[in-house]
Structure formats: C-alpha cells, structure tokens
Amino acid sequence: MAHALEQFSDGSTGFVSAREDAWHKLGTVTPDALTAEDALSAARLGGWNVRKLSLTARELSDDGVTSYEVDRFYATARTNPVSGATDILGVVGETYHPIQNEANCELLNALVDESGAHFETAGSLYSGRQVFVTMKLPETMMLAGSDAHELYIAALNSHDGSTAFRFMVTPVRIVCANTQALAISQAKSSFSIRHTETAKGRIAEARRALGLTWKYLEEFQAQAERMMAAPLEFKDFRKVVDELWRPVNGADSARTIGNSVRRDAALDVLFKDAATQKGIRGTRWAGLQAIGEYIDHYAPAKDAYARAVRTVSGDSMRMKEQAARLLAV
Q1: Which of 18, 46, 129, 302 falls between 20 and 30 A from 287, CA-CA?
Q2: How far apart are the C-alpha atoms of 134 and 105, rounded to whole Å?
Q3: At residue 242, what are phi and psi to the nearest 5 degrees?
Q4: What are all long-range contacts of 28-36, with beta carbons under 8 Å and residues at least 24 apart?
Q5: In this structure, is residue 184 part of a structural domain?
Q6: What is the spatial distance between Cα 123 and Cα 17, in angstroms, rounded to a whole number?
Q7: pLDDT digit string, tens, across residues 11-30
Q8: Residue 119 region by backbone torsions, left for phi larger than 0, else alpha for psi between -120 and 50, else beta
Q9: What pLDDT, in 10s, does the model give residues 179-219?
Q10: Are 1 and 24 in contact (CB under 8 A)?
C-alpha cells in the first residue's frame, strides 16, 4: 500500500509532524509541539468547508442529454486549500452531516482538555477523502488505570461517507495510510460517532469508552480517601490553624486580636458543627474542608466581587495547598 498522503498542485503534501522526521520525508516537520492551529495550517487541513451538493444524473440519447435531479443522495465537496477549486469527495445519503477538520481538533482538545496533550501529526489521505489528527498522551493521563506512556489518541474521519468519525487510543503514531491501518488494528480502545450525530455532545461518553482518566485526579482521589479515613482531634486542628495564621500576642493591636478571635470562632464552628461536615466530621479531610470553606466564604472581604477574585488568587490557593500538605496522610 502506498502512503496515500495527498499531494497538492504546488508540490506540497497534506501532512505535518511534530519534532520527529517522517520516514517518507513528505510534508512539514516542526521543531516544537503542535497546537491545533499549527496542525491545521501546516497539513493544509484548514478552511475546507466540507459540504453537501445536490446530485444530477444525466442520460445520453439520440435526442441529446436529459438531466434528472437525484433525491435523497448528495455529493460531498470541499474547497481545495491550494487551488481554491471545488473537489468532489464522495456520495452520501440525506442524513449525512459533514464534520469539518477544525472540529477534529476541537473534539480532540475537548477529549483531553486537562491533560496537556499536544498534537503530534495530521494529514490528508486519498485526495482529501480521509483525514487523521493525532495527539500524544502525556504522563498526566492514564488509560484504564495504566500509565499512558507512548500512547496516542487519534481522530479519524472520512469526507466521502466511507467511515464514521472515530476516536482511538493506539501505540502507533499515524503518519500515512499504512500506519493508519496499523493503528486501527493495534487500537487499545476506540469510539465511533456517526455523521448523523452531534459529536460534541458525546465527548464525556467517548472519554469513558476510551478509558481515559487523569493521573493527578486518581492521585487526588486516593489522598482524599486516606484523609477521610484518618481521624483529626480538635486540638490537632487548632495546631494546623496556628501554622496557617500566626497566633496573636500581647503586642498586637486590638483590631488584630479581634479579627483573630472571630476567625478562630468561625473555624471552630466549621470544623465541629457545620452541616457541610456531615459524613466526614472529625477527620483530616474535614479539617481541610473547614479551612477551605473559611477562606472562600467567611474571611472578610470588601464585597462579593473581591471575595470571588480572592478565592482563586495566588495567596488563597497557596494557603489551601499548605493546609493540604499539613493534613496529608
């Protein structure tokens, strides 16, 4: 099987690769990790405007040519990214819905939106009838409980109606038709979306089907479970509070002492009596939640906007992170 990468009239090839040289020496190789925009631009995948066109059948006879409108079937077409001409790609039914190449990248980004994954390769096969986009899974992601070392997630699509839109996790880095076929055969998991469906609405389902999780979420969940199982006495909670906020002394002003008394009273109530502690009361996890709740909702603030900004500010986040370290098991 030939590589089947699309080659345009100006001599360029519809393929881009991040960092690694392609074995076939075609397309564009970049020295850096690819963004979605890089992949679409360098692989000539952007602005195709894949669309459906009405079909007309023609019959030749002695009387000339008779044309007939074809019901329930359409031609798929694109705007050629080099020449600007309209290219016919295939014939599809009336329920077929084109998925643009831009959507391939958007859907991959949505699928791995918290992982830091980057685009690795992208290309056009068989004169634009099929396209592929791949991302390399980083160490922050896991596949069904296993580290995702040297695994790729690929989005495969056809514009001629020959295949569904498909996500897959595979150890094969796709660079041509040959490796695409190999990637399909070696896929660890896959998920297909028909061109009649709304692809974006099925991202969560695709993530579950592919078995993708975030490693740091798994680690956070494990830590939270350990903290929920570990008791925390009130006197030990007070020690953590004193680590976070310096205890007052005789040299402090009356205002500082008053603020400290009010803060300690609020924290005591949040730890011992608050309804938000139901089910976790008396644990190290409860201590962390009480401190976070105080910082977010009870610490004095000028107004609601200032409180909202402070909730995600560097100082507040650092204090919560310090509390998590002090209470970790």
Answers
A1: 302
A2: 9
A3: -65, -30
A4: 33/118, 33/119, 34/118, 34/119, 34/120, 34/122, 35/118, 35/119, 36/105, 36/106, 36/108, 36/109, 36/119
A5: yes
A6: 9
A7: 888 988 886 655 556 778 87
A8: beta
A9: 888 888 888 888 888 887 777 777 778 877 877 776 655 66
A10: no
Answer whether 137's CB lies under 8 Å from 215's CB: no
Contact yes or no for 170/155 (Cβ under 8 A): no
Q: Which two tokens stand for residue 149?
A: 């070392």
Q: 152-158 and 64-79 as β-strands: parallel, antiparallel, unpaired? A: unpaired
Report yes or no on whether pTM surpasses 0.90: no
Residue 103 lies in a domain: yes
Domain extent for 299: 230-327
Same domain, 169 and 95: yes
What the block records as the tokens of 287 is: 């201590």
Same domain, 161 and 259: no
Residue 278 to residue 271: CA distance in whole angstroms: 10
Alpha helices in the chain (DSSP H): 36-42, 101-111, 177-185, 203-210, 215-229, 234-244, 254-272, 284-293, 304-311, 314-327
